[in-house]
Backbone:
């Protein structure tokens, strides 16, 4: 029997909170960006470049959140990344010398030295330190669709008590996207896939055509979707909702049941930054000698044991190819099973955090490379597609009202609203209402007061980032998350009081501006203007 055709929509959500501390020569949390550039973003660009070179037709969807784009665009962070990767090269060289007579680990030290050198060369020379432009090129050539997100990944259901907070998250995000890519975004990854009924109307007002949500948000829509999560549904506003497929997702992201837990893959939690003698490491650590992940990891997962065996890159690469084939085989079976009850080819939406690939799962970019090549060369049943591409082919879809949902633990809002972080929301809501007051008064004020009010918006959206509430819940780096939330709220409050009193401290304002430099496209009048006219409704079915 001939396999039935279907579509695979692979989506990578690339996001990090805006972290920039010019007041310190080294700052631990800035390493989040540098590690992701080395482990995830540069390897993904290498994969896409290789596919283009070899004539592979691919379709991939990727979020580049506004906070991540702001860091890509920051000259201080760019220069610090070069310093970071140069230090890693020096550490790998020192390890080569230390392990020069070790036939097992000596080659691994050379492997990492070469890898860091390639990363520095790619960042400095091939991409000219501009990763936004590098990703934009793939979008211009048609293989990649880049979508947006809330400007600082604010959890929209919990911000919606003050509607202007949601509009600000979305409007500044759209403006950031236009500045980066010269066009408006067609789609959005809802931060944390957080949805509440009615949020789609805010998306419609910003001319956003589709969003990504958790499976049960679409599966439990009213009326129940005829095709479940294997076709999008139109909200009453006309915005399309695409639901995450659980079967394909779990096979990839689960460390216990999915591919990343295979014994041949690299062990993330064993790093020379914690294994070596502190005196040997000191030149490569932060100024205070704090141990950090260095990216040099010599062991494979091996199994659920403290004894770890040496990592073999070639063997791990073979395993990634095997797992890409297995994933494709299982999607074929899934599509065959689904197709009998549908009037169109089934759509499998497979969204993941981009940082899973390369950072947490070292071989993840190789897996993506093998998967996209196998889709092109080894089969004809499954076609890769983007959400926009699907809606162009199938503009008529069922109208439904999705239900409240997120992709957090238990599927609703408890990760971002619990005893560890619930205190932040009364302050965020109060500040949002005060921002409305400023927006109504400032247009008639002086240039300095308008400048202060614009910075106040930056401080507010930075405080709204869902990352801080998430960190408070998970219990890692909690003091930093609390400090970031309170610092931004206090800066907002100080600016608010100065503007209302018509006594803006220009020196203090300049200091804040130099710390929080993100979103230069932020425009106070646009952010708080009334919503535009509604979109024309797309094709629908009842």
Residues:
């Amino acid at each position: 029997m001939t396999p039935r055709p279907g579509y695979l929509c692979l989506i990578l959500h690339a996001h990090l909170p805006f972290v920039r501390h010019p007041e310190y020569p080294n700052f631990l949390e800035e390493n989040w960006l540098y590690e992701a550039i080395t482990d995830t973003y540069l390897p993904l660009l290498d994969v896409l470049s290789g596919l283009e070179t070899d004539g592979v037709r691919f379709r991939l969807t990727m979020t580049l959140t506004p906070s991540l784009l702001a860091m890509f665009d920051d000259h201080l962070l760019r220069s610090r990344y070069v310093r970071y990767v140069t230090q890693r090269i020096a550490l790998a060289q020192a390890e080569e010398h230390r392990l020069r007579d070790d036939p097992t680990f000596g080659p691994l030290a050379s492997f990492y030295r070469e890898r860091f050198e390639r990363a520095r060369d790619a960042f400095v020379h091939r991409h000219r330190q501009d990763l936004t432009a590098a990703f934009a090129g793939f979008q211009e050539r048609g293989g990649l669709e880049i979508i947006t997100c809330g400007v600082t990944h604010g959890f929209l259901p919990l911000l919606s008590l003050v509607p202007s907070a949601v509009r600000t998250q979305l409007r500044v995000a759209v403006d950031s996207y236009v500045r980066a890519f010269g066009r408006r975004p067609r789609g959005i990854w809802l931060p944390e896939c957080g949805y509440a009924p009615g949020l789609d109307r805010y998306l419609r007002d910003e001319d956003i055509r589709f969003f990504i949500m958790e499976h049960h948000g679409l599966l439990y829509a009213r009326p129940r979707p005829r095709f479940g999560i294997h076709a999008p549904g139109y909200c009453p506003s006309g915005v399309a909702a695409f639901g995450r497929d659980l079967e394909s997702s779990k096979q990839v992201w689960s460390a216990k049941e999915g591919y990343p837990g295979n014994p041949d893959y690299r062990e993330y939690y064993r790093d020379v930054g914690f294994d070596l003698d502190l005196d040997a490491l000191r030149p490569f650590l932060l100024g205070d000698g704090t141990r950090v992940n260095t990216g040099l990891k010599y062991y494979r997962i091996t199994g659920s044991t403290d004894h770890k065996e040496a990592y073999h890159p070639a063997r791990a690469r073979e395993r990634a190819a095997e797992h890409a084939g297995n994933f494709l085989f299982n999607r074929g079976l899934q599509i065959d099973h689904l197709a009998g009850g549908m009037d169109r080819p089934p759509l499998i939406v497979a969204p993941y955090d981009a940082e899973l690939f390369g950072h947490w799962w070292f071989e993840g970019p190789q897996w993506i490379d093998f998967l996209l090549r196998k889709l092109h060369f080894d089969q004809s049943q499954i076609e890769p597609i983007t959400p926009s591409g699907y809606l162009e082919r199938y503009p008529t879809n069922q109208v439904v009202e999705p239900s409240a949902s997120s992709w957090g633990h238990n599927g609703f809002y408890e990760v971002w609203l619990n005893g560890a972080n619930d205190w932040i929301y009364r302050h965020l809501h109060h500040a949002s209402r005060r921002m409305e007051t400023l927006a109504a008064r400032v247009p008639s004020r002086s240039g300095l007061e308008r400048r202060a009010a614009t910075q106040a918006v930056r401080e507010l959206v930075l405080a709204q980032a869902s990352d801080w509430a998430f960190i408070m819940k998970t219990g890692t780096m909690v003091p930093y998350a609390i400090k970031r939330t309170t610092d931004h709220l206090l800066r907002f409050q100080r600016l608010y009081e100065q503007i209302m009193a018509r006594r803006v401290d220009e020196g203090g304002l300049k200091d804040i501006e130099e710390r929080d430099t993100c979103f230069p496209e932020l425009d106070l009048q646009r952010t708080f203007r009334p919503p535009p006219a509604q979109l024309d409704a797309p094709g629908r079915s009842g």
